[in-house]
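Kindly go through the following sequence and its backbone structure tokens. Advise at your convenience whether the structure tokens fit the sequence:

___
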Amino acid sequence: MATKTGIEWTEMTWNPVTGCVKISQGCKHCYAERMAKRLKAMGSARYEFEFAPTLHEDLIGLPLKWKKPRTVFVNSMSDLFQDAVPLDFIQRVFETMVATPQHTYQVLTKRSRRLFELAPLLPWPSNVWMGVSVENERVVERVDHLAATPAMVKFLSCEPLIGPLDNLPLAGIDWVIVGGESGPGARPINEKWVQSIRRQCHTQRAAFFFKQWGGVRKDRTGRLLNGRTYDAMPQNKGILLTLVT
């Protein structure tokens, strides 16, 4: 299950795990849950159990078949570090990433404590970017858990941003993605929250990527901030393809 994607900060997705369990307010209007329901209705065998956590053993080695370098969002339809995913499965996913250094993998989790606990048991090649979701101040501790891992590139996804984050601990963080919630029931984003994060990234030399304003129709609100787009991406620890301005 590898799919080209319209997500602005990656090229494609790879989902050896599908389905998840909601754990915080950032999960309230989960896009992956809505998509899973549609895919089940369309008869997709991968979503027989809709959004219940499901392991797809046959997809663990899929990237081994890809020769051309790609940027890959791992488990866009799930969370690799949720309790339903056994350690040995996570280790095999990481082994595939180690064996394919031509690709860049972006792994994102809300289960930062489990990430922190399992990090010593996993390999951390430079082509694995590790991130945590931080939607408001209640879950800022996720940043500390991430910072304590050996990942070479560390990033935050502040999407959906549903509250201010004026004191992000960005030491050791290479990249911050910010975006408003989209789709049915989307909660509003405040420009002051976005500008605050942008300034913090500038001070701490973290790459800043503004993904979208969101809303029920994100195509109508766009992604311009200060009359421009912000598309900074990390290349490696301490090296930015585009510096924040």
User: Anything to note?
Assistant: The first helix runs from residue 31 to 41. Residues 2-240 form one domain. Residues 234 and 240 are 5 Å apart (CA to CA). Helices lie at 31-41, 87-98, 112-118, 141-147, 191-204, 218-221.
